[in-house]
User: What shape does this take?
Amino acid sequence: MKNIFYTKFWRKYYPIILCFALMFFHFLSAYPGGMTVDSFSQYEQSISGNYFSHHPPLMSMIWSLLNHIYQGPQIMLLWHLVLLWGGVLLLFYADRQNKYRYLYFVIPFLPNILAQSGVIWKDIGFGLGSFFVIASCIFYSYHQKRPSYLAAIGLLLVIFYIVGVKFQAQFIAPILILFVLSVSLKANWFIRIIVTIILSLVIIEGNNYLAKHFSTDSHAKQLRQLFDIAGVIVAIDNDDLLPDYVKEDKNLYSFEKLKSLYTPTLVNALVFGDDRIYNSTSDPIKLQELESSYVKAVTHYPLAFLKHRIKNFILLMKSAEYYSDDLFIDPNEAEKYGIYLKKNHVKDLVIFYLKAFPRLITKNFISFILIFVYLAAILTNKQSNNPEKVILTYIVAIGLVFSVVLLFATMACDYRYYYVIRVLTLFSLPIYLKFRYYKTSQK
Assistant: This one.
C-alpha cells in the first residue's frame, strides 16, 4: 500500500515538488540577492521613505513593506523567484499534450536567464512579472476556462506593478491587458480593445500619479536627451544644437571633450564623474531649452539620430553578462546597510557554470532572432484557431514593440534591458516546438 500511495502521490505532485526544490536551489544560489548601485539606491529609498522618480517609486514602496517581514534584499529576491517558478509551474500544467513541456524546468537555468534573475533590479521585476502574467494567460487558454474575478484582478495588479517598476513597461501593458481580457471576457474584439484602452490608461495614469505625488522628480529624461543630442552633434561635427547654458559652463564643457567622452554604448561618461560635461538640472527653463534642442536634433538631423540609436541597439543586441561577486554585490557597500555576506558554495557553483558557458549564445540577439523565427512560423501557418499560434502572436507583438521602444528610449546598452524579451522568447520555445514539429489531434 505504501508503494502504491507513494507512486500515486509522486505522479500527482512531482511537478510541484520539483518546482519548489529548484526554486529553493535558485534562491540559495542568488542569496541574499544581487545588489548594484541601482539596487542599493532603491533599497535606501525603501528604508528612508524618500522616493525619487529616476527609479519609479512603486518597487521601493513594495520593498518598504517587505522590509517589515525581513529587512534586506532577501524577500524581494524571493518575490521575484516566486513569479518565475510560479510561471514555470503554470506552463507545465497548461498543456499536458506538449511533449516538450519538461523544458520549462530547464529554461530558468539557461545563462540567458539565470545570469541576472537573482539581481534586485526593476528590469528583473518587470521581466518576471510580465512572464507570470503571460504564463497565467497561457494556462487559461489551454484549459479553455475563464479565470475567477479574483484571479483576473490579481493579474491586472501584477501588470500595475510592472508598469510601476519600469517606465518602458507601459508600452507593452496594453498587450498584456488584452491577453488577460481575451481569456477573461466572453466579448467580441471591439469590446476587448475598448476595455484594454480604458484599463491601460487607468494603470499608466495611476502609476504617474504615484510618481508625481509620492516621489521627488529627478528629471531623468534630460540624460537621455543629452545622450541623443551628443550622438547627433558628434555625427555632424557641430555643437550649435546644444543649449547655451551647457556650453557656457567652461569648467565642464568643451566640444573636444564631448567628442572624446561620447560613445553610443552609454551616457555615463557625459554626466557622471569628474570628467563629465554636464550637470543635471531641475531648472524648468533649462529643461525646456534642452528638450527644444532634442526635438531640433531629431527633426533636423534624422539620419544622424537614427545612426546613433541603431548603433546603441546593435551594441545592446551584442551584449552579454554573467554572475560576478564584484558586479552583483559589493560586501563593503552591503555592510553599510546591515547586509553581511557569508561564503556561498551554491553560488560559487553557479558562477563556475555560467563562466564556462559559451558567451555567444547568451547574447541578446539570440532572442531578437527568435522573435522573427516565431513570426515566420505564424505567417506560414494557415490554422486560425491554433492555440500555439495565438500565444506566439502575443509573444511576437511584445517582442517587436519592446524592441522598438528600446531602439529609441534608452541611454545605455545594458544586457538587463532585454531581460524581459529573453525570458518570454526562451520560455516560448516548447510552445513553438509543438507548433512547428509536433502535430496533435484536433480538439
Notes: The CA atoms of residues 115 and 323 lie 5 Å apart.
